[in-house]
Amino acid sequence: MKKRVALLYGGTSSEHEVSRLGYEYVKELIDRSDYEPLPVYIDISGEWHITLRGKDLAAYPTGREGGSLYTDYGFIKIDAAIPLLHGAGGEDGSVQGALEIAHIPYVGARVSESAVCLDKAYAKAVASSLGIPTLGCVYLTKSESVDEALRRTKETVGLPAFIKPARLGSSVGAYPVNTEDEFTKLYPLAREAANGPVMVESLLTDKRELECAFCEINGKKLITPPGEILIEGFYGYGEKYGGKTETRAVADVDGEIRDRLIGYSRLLGESLGLRHLARLDFFLSGEEIYFNEINTFPGFTRESLYPKMLLAAGIDLKKALSSFIEDAIRDRPI
Ligand SMILES: Nc1ncnc2c1ncn2[C@@H]1O[C@H](COP(=O)(O)OP(=O)(O)O)[C@@H](O)[C@H]1O
Ligand SMILES: [Mg+2]
Fold first, then answer.
1. DSSP code for 32
2. Does residue 39 register a pLDDT over 90?
3. Does the C-beta of 201 come closer than 6 Å to ligand 1?
4. Inter-residue contact 260 to 242 (CB < 8 Å)
5. Over the chain, what is the mean pLDDT?
6. CATH, domain range 3-106
7. Domain 115-133+205-314, CATH 3.30.470.20 — does that match?
8. What percent of the chain has pLDDT over 90?
9. What would be the CATH architecture of the domain defined by 137-202?
10. Which is deepest, 32, 267, 282, 285, by most CB within 10 Å?
């Protein structure tokens, strides 16, 4: 019998639309001889929907029958779920927690690993503890005044600096700042967008953005050679989703840099207990590599760098997805 796999998509973050596109791609890729995909749309307010017999129904994950969704038409048994969700409320351990409680096996990083990776400063702290270079950073909570934030920034990273919410993606609320005036004007905007912790880092003006893919297939953890986002300056929301940014599935970098990036990614993948898939992002400035962030559910649209890097490494995406699902079922929440 085919296994029913819930494809969770949409979500409450600014990456809602990217998630929809990811769903379209995964729906095509999933092996229909083994799996029956069940679309579960999470709307922007966080409600779960499924369509049954042409009717839109609210769905709730529950532990009944060893993992199911409850709807007005009763319980629907789920064999596994793929949370194709990005950012807060999807990639941060919250949906993963709901699936754990419902005993539904799911693809991707588990609760704590997801939460640590979603906060860029926490992930950097782990990287630093492993001897992987990161940019200096100040971590500021919501309660810190602008004056206090500026004082701590000047004391540690100095100006110019880069302000960004620690737990948002898509470059929302992220700003380079050169002067105290700019800091005073833009920090409150970042704080408002963040609605949570904000970090301030040293500003890199001359850098390349290189990323490695982590992929776990049939028990083997693989790291691909780095790909690259070809961008000058700041990789903002418009560049990410305006469809104009050029990427390379395999970056043109020298062997020593490539090997260091692969080594750092492998160390992070193992130390953080990543599962199935993740993208590890770095900056290269001159000869210096800095770890930047980890996405535990990287963009998975046809245009996204992550699936392109796997393809370039000779990995069959259909087989990779089947392997993720089977491993999730073996490693099911108790
Ligand atoms: N310290 C920095 N110096 C210069 N540019 C940065 C710095 N940090 C981030 N950026 C730019 O902002 C973009 C978004 O920041 P990032 O930390 O990757 O967050 P996210 O992708 O989750 O929004 C990066 O791709 C890069 O172009
Ligand atoms: Mg990024």
1. T
2. yes
3. yes
4. no
5. 95
6. 3.40.50.20
7. yes
8. 92
9. 2-Layer Sandwich (3.30)
10. 282
SS3 breakdown of the chain: % helix, strand, coil, rounded to 5?
A: 35, 30, 35
Mutate which of 15, 119, 171, 284 for ligand 1? The one with the most ligand atoms within 8 Å of its CB, which is 171
Across the range 251-275, mean pLDDT stands at 97
Classify burial at 278, counting beta carbons within 10 Å of its beta carbon; exposed 0-12, middle 13-18, buried 19 or more: buried
The pLDDT confidence band at residue 243, using thresholds 50, 70 and 90, is: low
Question: Which H or E run includes 80?
Answer: strand 80-83
SS3 label, residue 288: strand
Domain boundaries of the chain, sorted by first residue: 3-106, 115-133+205-314, 137-202
**Phi, psi at 167, each rounded to 5°:** -120, 15
pTM assigned to the model: 0.96
Nearest Cα residue to atom 13 of ligand 1? 235
Span from the CA of 11 to the centroid of ligand 1 (angstroms): 22
Which pair of structure tokens corresponds to residue 289? Answer: 């590599």
